[in-house]
Design goal:
Layout (H helix, E strand, L loop, with lengths): L4 E3 L1 H10 L4 E7 L5 H12 L4 E4 L1 H8 L7 E5 L9 H6 L6 E6 L4 H13 L4 E5 L8 H7 L8 E4 L2 H10 L3 E5 L5 E2 L9 E6 L7 H6 L2 E4 L11 H18 L5
Length: about 250
């Protein structure tokens, strides 16, 4: 049976706090006895979860030599309360923000985008099913628990999904370095979806055409662009800033 692994101190601690019933197995490095590991052990014991102490070599083999920080869990992925676009849109209001990622290939960037989405109260993150990285154990580790908080919706066709989102009254904004409109020229109150492209290549041409508008993030230094994770943070926080300024959120 294929394992569904999650590793890293913060990611496993969050799983034990929020969804302990989903944990099937828990492995801890036998040479680690520090406070953070003891906290994980206490959470596991409290929830009746057996902790198996194993060598670092065993953990390396389980994770493919990933940066596991001495703790790995096998878990049953919980059924998401929102796992479809229609479900996401059913819960939409005037402050809804959606993050759509057009084929992100780096799990580090996906994980960081999830953290940004959680921090800004994004309703859901949309990723294409066959292009880019999925919600891997590495992405979950970088997300530091955000993957358990923010619905991640995998879709077969991102372009068609954009059409569905637009039909629901969500303004879809793509990001591009060559866009004439600046982030600070666009009103971001109301429900919005931001679409960000792959590292280096940006949005695909079809995705660009589907967006209501394109905008760029002003760059005042020598670099021409931000990576996708940094760009998502700038966009989402600017949207929340505008909503707060207009009294839409506290």
């Amino acid at each position: 049976m294929k394992r569904n692994l999650i590793y890293g101190l913060h990611a496993v601690h969050t799983l034990l706090e929020r969804n302990p019933v989903e944990v099937l197995s828990l492995w801890v490095q036998d040479t680690r006895n520090d406070a953070r590991m003891e906290g994980i052990g206490s959470l596991a014991t409290r929830n009746g979860i057996h902790v198996e102490r194993v060598s670092r070599k065993t953990l390396n083999r389980l994770t493919g030599f990933a940066a596991h920080q001495g703790v790995v869990a096998d878990h049953r992925a919980p059924a998401s309360k929102i796992d479809t676009i229609s479900g996401l849109l059913d819960h939409m209001d005037e402050t809804t923000l959606i993050l759509m990622l057009d084929g992100i290939s780096d799990p580090q960037n996906l994980g960081a985008c999830l953290r940004n989405a959680d921090a800004t109260g994004v309703a859901g993150v949309v990723i294409p099913r066959s292009r880019g990285v999925g919600l891997t154990a590495s992405a979950r580790k970088v997300a530091s628990g955000a993957a358990e908080n923010v619905p991640v919706i995998s879709v077969a066709n991102l372009a068609r999904t954009i059409d569905v989102v637009k039909e629901a009254g969500v303004v879809v904004i793509g990001t591009a370095g060559d866009a004439l409109a600046s982030l600070y020229d666009v009103e971001l109150c109301g429900p919005h979806a931001f679409v960000l492209g792959t590292e280096g290549k940006g949005l695909r041409q079809l995705t660009r055409k589907k967006c209501d508008c394109l905008l760029s993030i002003p760059m005042h230094g020598k670099l021409s662009s931000l990576n996708v994770a940094s760009a998502s943070a700038v966009l989402l926080y600017e949207a929340r800033r505008q909503q707060a300024m207009h009294g839409r959120i506290a």
